[in-house]
UniProtKB/TrEMBL annotation:
Belongs to the short-chain dehydrogenases/reductases (SDR) family. It comes from Apiospora aurea. This is Uncharacterized protein. Residues 51-71 are annotated as: Disordered. Keywords: NADP, Oxidoreductase.
Length: 357
């Protein structure tokens, strides 16, 4: 420990953790310690990491860095974040998804595939659920890239309109890994039709996929998170069209299905975010991303159907361009990682300023 005189001279504080003190005393000690720590600390395993508090911290000079914040001093312990998560032992550890398991509906292509790839890039084990019975070249390339970063992409054919089947698929994934940490609900369809021409069956189909499909995916995932006591996180892909009547886009049912998804996220967050202190269930955060226009297969079809639509959309946001799917990876990673541990029931609008003027 440090002598009273050193503390009195302000060289070290009574409360300064060991690693910080080493840093202030000799740089050699810090380097040596860091090197040994880097070699000895395994990949981040949130549920198995040893917690070192000032009570049980070993005297061994190569002990891991202290937790930040120290769980004894953190009034939120037992509520959030998980006290087994040893933040600050790795660079930006809040974003590390190693050892975690995720499901992405609509992960076969477009935005869903990009978001799935982002989670795998951060080390996650990601299952893409989509209705097609096989994957295309872009999915295969993304799966190959994912392994370079230590993550994995897997594919399961699953239509979100088959709620019972989706429940079984998500249960099988969670049981195989004994955990489920997150869901991205990105499966969605679009139909450009003026309101007066909308047929009842088309409206029902749209809502069944875009709204009920999200609800059923979320409940299937929440059942598994509760079963395995995982304090998971969900990200629903809504749209800026859920908050505004989108100029140049005559799709009244699509737009209102996205408004319903935003409202669903608030309600599920209210039900599932608190932790049930009796049985340890809950602690599930639910948020939305509302993207602006992104160039995906869905939107390319819109451009074929409506001449001049691309020019109109590009002129409607502050950046004068449309988005690429990969521009949403960071936001999704934020929502599904510890980085957003105090965020729930909310909607991130990422639209190049489209709805801000
Ligand atoms: N592209 C945009 O400009 C934009 C903007 C805002 C929101 N979104 C939303 O992002 C999400 C992804 O859209 P995208 O642009 O990548 O479209 P996309 O058509 O390229 O991808 C949608 C994916 O969902 C899958 N899917 C559709 N119905 C399904 C079902 N019943 N079961 C399982 N999978 C199903 C499709 O097979 C496809 O792989 C959608 O929810 C969409 O509404 C897109």
């Amino acid at each position: 420990m440090y002598s009273r005189s050193r503390i009195a001279r302000g060289l070290v504080s009574r409360h300064t953790p060991i690693a910080q003190c080493a840093l202030k005393t000799t740089s050699t000690a810090c380097t040596t310690r860091t090197a040994v720590i880097g070699a000895s600390v395994p990949l981040w395993t949130p549920h198995r990491a040893t917690i070192h508090t000032s009570h049980n911290r070993p005297a061994n000079p190569v002990a891991p860095k202290p937790m930040h914040p120290d769980p004894r001093e953190n009034p939120m312990v037992g509520i959030a974040p998980d006290k087994n998560v040893n933040v600050a032992q790795r660079r930006m550890a809040d974003f590390n998804l190693s050892g975690r398991v995720f499901v992405v509906t609509g992960g076969g292509r477009g935005l869903g595939l990009s978001l799935a790839e982002g989670l795998a890039e951060a080390g996650g084990y990601v299952y893409c659920l989509d209705r097609d019975n096989k994957v295309d070249r872009r999915w295969e390339e993304a799966a190959r890239r994912a392994t370079e970063w230590g993550g994995q992409l897997r594919y399961r054919q699953q239509d979100v309109q088959d709620a019972a089947g989706m429940d079984r698929t998500i249960a099988a994934i969670a049981d195989a890994h004994q955990r489920l940490d997150g869901l991205v609900a990105a499966a969605g369809v679009q139909q450009i039709t003026p309101a007066l021409e909308y047929r009842q069956e088309d409206a029902a189909r749209m809502l069944d996929i875009n709204y009920t499909g999200v609800l059923m995916a979320a409940t299937a995932a929440a059942r598994q998170m509760n079963k395995h006591k995982c304090r998971g996180s969900m990200c629903f892909i809504a749209s800026m069209s859920g908050s505004v009547a989108n100029k140049g886009l005559l799709s009244p049912v699509y737009n209102s299905s996205k408004a319903a998804v935003i409202q669903l996220a608030r309600n599920l967050a209210m039900e599932w975010s608190p932790i049930n202190k009796k049985d340890g269930t809950g602690g599930i955060r639910v948020n939305c991303i509302s993207p602006g226009h992104i160039v995906t297969p869905m939107v390319e079809k819109n451009f074929e159907e409506v001449p001049g639509l691309r020019d109109l959309w590009e002129s409607e946001n502050m950046m004068g361009r449309l988005a690429e799917p990969h521009e949403f990876k960071g936001a999704c990673l934020y929502l599904l990682s510890n980085a957003s541990s105090f965020m729930t029931g909310n909607n991130m609008v990422i639209d190049g300023g489209h709805t801000s003027w």
